[in-house]
Automatic annotation (TrEMBL), chain A:
Pfam families: Cytochrom_C_asm. One of its GO terms (molecular function) is heme binding. It is found in: Cell inner membrane; Membrane. PANTHER family: CYTOCHROME B_B6 PROTEIN-RELATED, HEME EXPORTER PROTEIN C. Belongs to the CcmC/CycZ/HelC family. The lineage of its organism: Bacteria, Pseudomonadati, Pseudomonadota, Gammaproteobacteria, Natronospirales. GO terms for biological process: cytochrome complex assembly. Required for the export of heme to the periplasm for the biogenesis of c-type cytochromes. GO terms for cellular component: plasma membrane. It comes from the Bacteria. The chain crosses the membrane at residues 26-48, 68-88, 95-113, 133-153, 165-185, 205-225. This is Heme exporter protein C. Residues 34-188 form the Cytochrome c assembly protein domain. The gene is ccmC.
UniProtKB/TrEMBL annotation, chain B:
It is found in: Cell inner membrane. GO terms for molecular function: heme transmembrane transporter activity. It holds the Pfam family CcmB. The keyword Cell cycle does not apply. InterPro entries: Cyt_c_biogenesis_CcmB, Cyt_c_CcmB_bac. It is a multi-pass membrane protein. The chain crosses the membrane at residues 21-41, 47-68, 103-121, 127-150, 162-182, 194-216. This is Heme exporter protein B. GO terms for cellular component: plasma membrane.
Amino acid sequence: MGKESWRWFHRFGSPPHVYGLADRMVPWFAILGLACLLTATVWGLAFAPPDYEQGDGFRMIYVHVPAAWLSLFVYVLLALASAIGLIWRMKVAHAVAIAAAPLGAAFTFLSLATGSIWGQPMWGTWWTWDPRLTSQLILLFLYIGFIVLNRAFQDQRSGDRASALLGVVGVVNVPIIHFSVDWWHSLHQPATIAKFGAPSIDTAMLIPLLVMALGYKLFFAWLLLRQLQAELLQRERRAAWTKALVTGPGGTVK
Amino acid sequence: MNSVFLAGLYRELLLAIRDTADVVTPLLFFVLVGMLFVLGLEPMPELLQAVGPGVIWVAALLSALLGAERLFRADYQSGALELAVLSPEPLSLHVMAKLCGHWLVSALPLLLLSPLLALMMNLPTQALSVLALTLLLGTPVFTILAALGAALTVGLRGGGSLLALVVLPLTIPVLIFGSRSVVQAVNGEEVTGLWALGMLAVLALSLGPPAVAAAVRISLE
């Protein structure tokens, strides 16, 4: 245990290192992610048995549930990256948080939209103040607040640190929000609506769902790395390594 | 240590007395929002009673937000905030003094005004004590969260709407527990949300000042 063992961690502080690493990882995530998504789509839509109550309507689960899982996961990732950026003053960690935010917001929106579309035939209404939908809506606002605060600063570093603090405070708040919304809902509407994605799901439906969730995760990792690369290039546009990327080694700018 | 806190608190109160407009505006806003809701709705007693707790709580929240926008601005512009950061005493202590002073001049009068709004909303008298108690537990959390947003946005131009966007989602749990507890009291049911409000107040009071201090440091960097 010496300085040597921490070298791998410190290297994540170096934008060119992370940029190169992302370049090498992107094809893997892209190929595996697309393969999973494709398999699960065909499997879930064509081969999984229809639900005895909801018929084919339940198939929305394959789009909705992975998006909902990911929306929370991405927020935790964002808060973790924010905390690392605040504590170790790591620029790359802030870039990860900023790169993840719009993706997380998009997945949150996707889960809201698909939940609403699923709710129309199942519940007979586009929107109901179901605790999960409500929590997702609040989560969407947390994402938007994070992005808007970061963009409001002229100085990138201040914006990074301000939004990072907000992200950390937000992640402390997320379980409290879930709890309070559940409590709020339980008061005036004792569980009349059947819970969605109950644990009693059949294995034949569950396996494609898990493959789809894995596909979503890999797809997200792919997008995140690309977004991170763009963010790093933009931040480091005056650095020597970005110029070398454009011109090639020893070349001149065209 | 203690003298820093007391000096800060004294300064805050003195500033409030010297410039009463800053103190009175959010309070008038609180009453006005309540009145606007009544005028926007039909003044049916049952309807007002049903929406009253929520309206009062939202009005209190918006008033806290309005008052917090100026919380750090004058100190930021005059450089007093920078001195507090540079002083040898912990910044959270300065922040705590400021927040306590701010709560005393903004939330405490609001608490005293709340029966007035309860009357406008036709709430039964048995709910008044619960309304006051929930506001007593909930307004410190509002003050701290709004201060966090104010500290993060103090250096930005036009921080008002940004402050709202950043802070409002975080305040939702307090709003839910506070407002619902009052609803339960109005309906004569057992009040079950108080412990959660107390928990949130303890959480905010213990984690809030260091977080706001960190936000102040970020804004001054």
